Amino acid sequence: MSEVTSVASIFGEDVFSDKVMQERLPKKVYKELKKTMTEGKELDPVIADVVAEAMKSWAVEKGATHYTHIFQPLTGMTAEKHDSFITAPKEDGSVLMEFSGKELIKGEPDASSFPSGGLRATFEARGYTAWDCTSPAYVRKDAAGAILCIPTAFCSYTGEALDKKTPLLRSMQAINEQALRLLRLFGNTTSRKVTPSVGPEQEYFLVDKQKYLKRKDLIFTGRTLFGAMPPKGQELDDHYFGIIRQRIASYMKDVNEELWKLGVTAKTQHNEVAPAQHELAPIYAEANVAVDHNQIVMKTLKKVACQHGLHCLLHEKPFAGVNGSGKHNNWSITTDDGINLLDPGKTPHENIQFLLVLTCILKAVDEHADLLRESAADVGNDHRLGANEAPPAIISIFLGEQLQDVIEQLVNTGSATHSKAGDVLNTGVKTLPVFSKDATDRNRTSPFAFTGNKFEFRMVGSKDSIASPNIVLNTIVAEAFSDACDALEAAEDFDTCVHDLIKKYATEHQRIIFNGNGYSEEWVEEAERRGLPNLKSMVDAIPALVTDKAVEMFGKFGVYSKAELEARAEIQYEAYAKAINIEAKTMIDIASKQIIPAVISYTKSLADTINAVTAAGAKAAVQVGLLNECSDLLEEAKAALVKLTEADDAAAEIGEVEAQARYFHDTVVPAMAALRAPVDKLEMLVDKEVWPMPSYGDLLFEV
Ligand code: ADP
Ligand code: MG
Hints:
This protein is α+β, with helices and mostly antiparallel strands. The protein has 22 helices and 15 strands. Helix 13 links the parallel strand 13 and strand 14.
């Protein structure tokens, strides 16, 4: 692609888009399919056959040989199995390319090896994938050739959700129903559908592939388990928004082109805070499409990196000592006729519907802060949340000056009479344009910040699917809307009731609002005084999934059954234990086979030098000092290695998943830190020539 103008021509070229459907489907079929997509009407099998045929011939023209049902099991990633379009050979030995409606709408992967948290025993291995027609199919081209990818939901034989897509779609239904109910009460008769819109900003690191291959920790765990800080980190703030280096720029160009072809609206790219860290953000889309597209983004970042001799690290904390990576989940609620329920307008104090929506969200987030925190829980994210860089592990809401003031008026006087307006930006330079500022400044430390016409949930980890946070957001807000509608529908006087509700919610839930510095120690203490939960680790957060209030709410809106929640909790504990176990084993492996031998050979060469220097009649005090220092640290490292090995072995003996996860957190993780400390000190002493792997400096600054 040479011309900028050709972006428009390649955009969506590999997507079975609305335009393609209009061109290729008979009018009647197109209309029926649209009805299913927009109104959730059941799909007629005859229609499915016609759609499948059109989809297949379109895909085959693009070179596709196979199709696959892409689904999102509870691993947080996507899964797929490829089937070619060929039929059994005819008598003359020739084959046809076929694809039926049945194959389009239903798949049956023998999927007993996916985590099911006990929802499905291995002897009952049936699982079904079902076409999610609201997220477009596309043709993906890679080393396997061209493959028609069909986004699907994945359920067990008995209909339990074994994936992240099904509950997401259920939660979208819930918020649609409750938001429509609320809109009708405010006299809206025209909107027919309300959808959560999501724009995820994706952070990632890029390292040189050859150096990556020399680090077993990166290969096995996605993060460095050892590594001394280089002389320079991120303290100069010279990487954030800095000039993008040519090698990276050419990578980003290819990523964008691939994404555009797949209909992903890659929009913003820049260098992030840490060296070698970058960000990509698309234009927001309907929640399920955004979730699917984010998976495509993550895959594309990885794939294109390979083609450029790079490796893309999506882990939340690939390097200690510099910022980790997250995924800001921007979320709003929009009607099919273009109304954003989170748009305050110029004078929010007069916008009663907005104030009710806003205070419902305060209530939802306050009542279910634990669930929202849990939705961002991920092993890697434990290194960020509460560790002075990403948002703290405590959920709070930033509203900004204007809305904060409106809420204060409501709480103090019962009604709001004015809204602070945005000023004009005055730079003192006559040649610069004068424009009006937003009414609200930004706050970078809040986990849940109002940013103009959307909320930005900043806790999500970079590697994780954004499905879980959006399932939680959609459902907790649906519940708050439902409670408000119950009250309003029963009220004799709507105006008084709505006024009272807004005041009540604002007053009862103002403790969740915090506009200060979320990274400070004072906030941790203040939050405790306010009674806000501070769930410091993933293991602490998981129980939120199965509290009575969570089970009741998810059950009420048909998003998760109790069994589905229990299964998820179990899978989370297992995921935690497995990940830490792999990290511990990798540390043991690297320390035993690479680091200790390297230090031993270095101390040997020091000893030889000392002997030679002393024999020559000179002083070898420096060498002796260094040798002693190295030997002491070597001893400390060896002792820590023994302890870590014992701790990890003991973990394997614990049968119950929760207890095992907790043991890994409380005992194995500190044992890993105890091994890392002397090793990182040794790295600063030992000759770089003999150190067995590339350093932080090599990885972060020589990309
Ligand atoms: P920031 O300045 O916070 O880094 P951007 O302005 O680039 O971020 O926007 C972040 C993301 O928010 C983008 O993906 C954008 O499409 C998305 N976004 C913008 N408006 C909305 C909205 N109303 N609802 C959901 N997402 C939105
Ligand atoms: Mg942002």
